[in-house]
Amino acid sequence: MELISTAVWLVVTLLAVVYYYFQRKFSYWKSRGVPYIEPAFPMGNLSWKPSGNFREVFNELYKAKGESPFVGAYFSMSPLVVATDLDFVKDVLVKDFNNFHGRGIYTNEKDDPISAHLFSLDGPKWKSLRMKLSPTFTSGKMKFMFPTIVDVSERFNLALGKMLKGGSDFDLKEILARFTTDVIGTCAFGLECNSLKDPDTEFRKYGRMVFEASKVRSIRRAISRFPKLAAKIHLKTFGKELNDFFLGVVRQTIEHREKNNIRRNDFMDLLIDLKNNETMDDEKKVKLEKLTLEEVTAQAFVFFIAGFETSSTTMMFALYELAVNPEIQEKLRTEINTVYAKHEGRLSYEAIKDMVYLDQVINETLRKYPPVVALQRKTQNDYKVANTKLVIEKGTTVIIPAYEIHHDERYYPNPEKFDPDRFLPEVWKARHPMAFLGFGDGPRNCIGLRFGRMQSRVGLVMLLKNYRFEVSTKTPIPMEFSPITAVLSPVDGMHLKVVKI
Prior knowledge:
CATH class of the largest domain: Mainly Alpha
Keywords: Endoplasmic reticulum, Heme, Iron, Membrane, Metal-binding, Microsome, Monooxygenase, Oxidoreductase, Transmembrane, Transmembrane helix
Helix content: 40-55%
Number of strands: 11
Mean pLDDT: 88
Order of helices and strands: HHHEEHHHEHHHHHHEEHHHHEEEEHHHEE
Binding site for heme: 446
Cofactor: heme
Distance between the termini: 85 Å
Strand content: 5-15%
Membrane topology: Peripheral membrane protein
Structural class: alpha+beta
Strand order of the largest sheet: 1-2-9-6
């Protein structure tokens, strides 16, 4: 009996010590006079939640803003900064970028080579790779790829026309993902994916696999938030099947092109050049090393997953708002037809650039529905916050809640209203430059933003010229977001009525 009593006291004492330890950790922001949301014992504010739920957490944190330029939160026991002031956001993303250039995302180059891509790398590796890849996304290179995107959009038009024979109510989320999969597959790998004809092609299958939710994926994602632990157990973010598929596709594509001396002026050609030729760092006047096969694959992979999912999601939300707001849809369709007539009925690179209202619609869609709801940075050294006595310690993660900023009434009155005129040049110029973060900002903004915009423009033009989009009985009104997807998505697809014009 005495032994049991001793054991109970030991357990109680141990729990008390652990609880006291956590309470000390959780007093970090209070002791510094920073507004914060009381963390939950023992997991803080954010740990172990499905990625989609972070939007709700960030919303709660953002509302707690005070005079401080940020709100304090906890990732497990680690203090976390959630930015609430746009001048502070500008300091992090632009002005003091050198102290915030890293994202702090776990990568495993040896066991999981496709995880070591431009989005996730930090430090000198990221800088070198960004420098090598930046020329890939110039307006001149986009012009080369433009006819390929138009070709795929025309096949999309034919495929959708055939689908209409079976009914007019569609889940556009899947159809649009098949379109962007075919575009990226062609531009990044030079391969005809044919997912518009067959939704179960390998590229569409593996594209779904990257984003589909599962318990295993949730556990992997949770562990990856603890990089030291993840490294010790050699955690693979994507797994063997995905790695083998993309490494195999890239290896075969490179061998075929080099053997037959094939050039297509696409993304893969540019990656092959970086594999075979040294490049120069113009700033330091030093040679940059060639890319390995694994590095080429990782960049092709991230171009694929980022390009097909974010662009299809943007197009999907744009069509949703155009269906809900038919007067905006008709105004945009009028612009499209007018520009077509001006350019002799051809969709050219120059014609797309003339569609100003189309750009406003896309920007307002990205404002209301940013695919990536928050940006992440990590302090490289202790950082004194401008105009305060606050110091953010080295290694602290800084979260910039793009969704919350985009829905802040201080910058966008009546933020739930879809209004493309928010992006008239004079209106946009009058706002704080950090009030729109659809592609991030600063030296680490989205490198593929030109391609993403071009792909979305071409897809929307083709659709709106040939079809009218209307609300159906299955259309989600009001919009409800999925709590488990990494990219902002509706909870149960996006059904709209499609009518041939």
